[in-house]
Amino acid sequence: MDNAVKKLPPQNTGNKKKIINWCIGIIVALLVVWSCTGLDFSGIKPTAGQITGAIFDGIIHPDWSYVYNGTGEDLISQLWDTLCIAFLGTFISAFISLPLAFWAATGKHKKWYVSRTGKTILAIIRAFPEIVLALMFIKAVGPGAPAGVFALGFHSIGMLAKLYSESIESLEKDVNEAIVAAGGSRFNITMFATMPNLMPALISTTLYRFDVSVRSASILGLVGAGGIGYPLIIAIQYREWNRVGIILLGIIVMVILIDWISGKIRKKLV
Predict the structure, then answer these.
(1) What distance lies between CA 156 and its chain's CA centroid?
(2) 3-state secondary structure of 41
(3) How far is CA 266 from CA 95, 97, 169, 190, in A?
(4) Is the pLDDT of residue 169 over 90?
(5) Residue 206, helix vs strand vs coil
(6) Kindly report the CA angle at 193 between 188 and 198, in degrees rounded to 5?
(7) Is the model's pLDDT at 110 over the cut of 80?
(8) Which of 164, 255, 251, 143 is nearest to 206 (CA)?
(9) Mean pLDDT score of the chain, rounded to an integer?
(10) CA distance 32 to 196
(11) How far is residue 61's CA from residue 68's CA, in Å, rounded to a whole number?
(12) DSSP state of 4
């Protein structure tokens, strides 16, 4: 008796896969060529290579004397202002976002269009870019940190309320039904069931938003909304590449530290 195991013939998928890969490669190459032909590269300055080299030289040789000089205009002071803008903007938006989140949460209202209206308003708020909001608030309250706080706070409302409402929708309803069966009111449900169960998610989401706001606050200063972005754009305009290098290094260290700390706290809450 022949005990040899008969093997099925290998599927002829090698050539088909190669043809697909070649087609994808050709399409990508055509898209790159098409993109290049649609742009005008004639405006590149002949000194581009020299200036690029100066930028990289300044970044790898940062101006350490700018770290702290006691004038209030140094790197540490500007980073502190950036953190304050991010914290205050996130803190204000967190309080305003909570009632909006209950408004937009599905299943919290008898009429379906109530939550739908809330979701639509939050989507409209999120549609405004932070830079545009910063420019608008600069015109309203003047350049500086208040414009950055208002811009970050307004933009964060749309995102935080959306994430809060999703957390509310995911809560178990068993506890609510038990409180109703015991004669509890809607206020009792909110205070003794919804909020205690919701609090870890609220804190975790707010910390994540603060992490994002720190990065955003660093950028808003480029248009005059306070923070580290303002000395950065001044250093770029005057081609002080060593100062640009130390400012970028400071932003990187600050973002890494905030990301690490908020990540640790969020892990403990989950």
Answers:
(1) 9
(2) coil
(3) 19, 20, 20, 23
(4) no
(5) helix
(6) 130
(7) no
(8) 164
(9) 86
(10) 53
(11) 17
(12) P
